[in-house]
Write a structure and sequence with these properties.
The complex is a heterodimer. By secondary structure, chain A is mostly beta strands. Chain A has no helices and eleven strands. Chain A is about 0% helix and about 55% strand. In chain A, strand 7 and strand 8 form a beta hairpin. Chain A is globular and about 35 Å long. Chain B is mainly beta. The chains are: A mainly beta, B mainly beta. At the A-B interface, strand 4, strand 5 and strand 10 of A face strand 5 and strand 11 of B.
């Protein structure tokens, strides 16, 4: 298995632009998680899905952030409009049993908003 | 929500020495714990786990100890190598939720 796939690996954009991050989970994993990592706040859970349904989005910082999972093999995290404080590394992870058990992380997308 | 505290945000050890990374947790209902390792430029990766009915579990060069009385975990790495340099996380489940709180982790630096 190729593991969790994220794209793009790096994204540089200007303030106000729309950013879309993509994730392909490991086949057969029913749980998908989006995290954001910064030096100051560490690794934070933004939202997670179970069987394509959003379960907990309490970590989404504000309405500028949205996430979708149209099918079991694809999810997007969108930021519109982007701001410099959104600069971070965004990770997608998937799990066959739920977040309390082993999660398999993707390589991350490093986002820089100028 | 419940949180996990790490006693030290950074730890430096000499190559060949043993490393001990400590972790405190607050959710007494937690029954399963995982240690993750995050190398530079990569996502976190599972190292070892332990269930609450155990107080020790050993892997290859790593040992996890669990003290439920004081809600404390530790990860011991034997004969630390440069490849062990990474950030280590001991996330714990959020109460009533199916997710983990990771926080900032502990950065281990191995000095050659």
């Amino acid at each position: 298995d190729a593991g969790v796939i994220q794209s793009p690996r790096h994204e540089v954009t200007e303030m106000g632009q729309e950013v879309t991050l993509r994730c392909k989970p490991i086949s057969g994993h029913d749980y998908l998680f989006w995290y954001r990592q910064t030096m100051m706040r560490g690794l934070e859970l933004l939202i997670y899905f179970n069987n394509n349904v959003p379960i907990d989005d309490s970590g989404m910082p504000e309405d500028r952030f949205s996430a979708k999972m149209p099918n079991a093999s694809f999810s997007t995290l969108k930021i519109q409009p982007s701001e410099p404080r959104d600069s971070a590394v965004y990770f997608c992870a998937s799990s066959p049993r739920g977040g309390a058990y082993e999660q398999f992380f993707g390589p991350g997308t490093r986002l820089t908003v100028l | 929500g419940e949180s996990v505290g790490l006693h030290l945000p950074t730890l430096s050890v000499q190559e060949g020495d043993n490393s001990i990374i400590n972790c405190a947790y607050s959710n007494s209902a937690s029954d399963y714990f995982i240690w993750y390792k995050q190398e530079s430029g990569k996502g976190p990766q599972f190292i070892i786990d332990i269930r609450s009915n155990m107080d020790k579990r050993q892997g290859q060069r790593v040992t996890v100890l669990l003290n439920k009385t004081v809600k404390h975990l530790s990860l011991q790495i034997a004969a630390t190598q440069p490849g062990d340099s990474a950030v280590y996380f001991c996330p714990t489940p959020q109460t009533g939720a199916n997710n983990l709180f990771f926080g900032t982790g502990t950065r281990l630096t191995v000095i050659p």
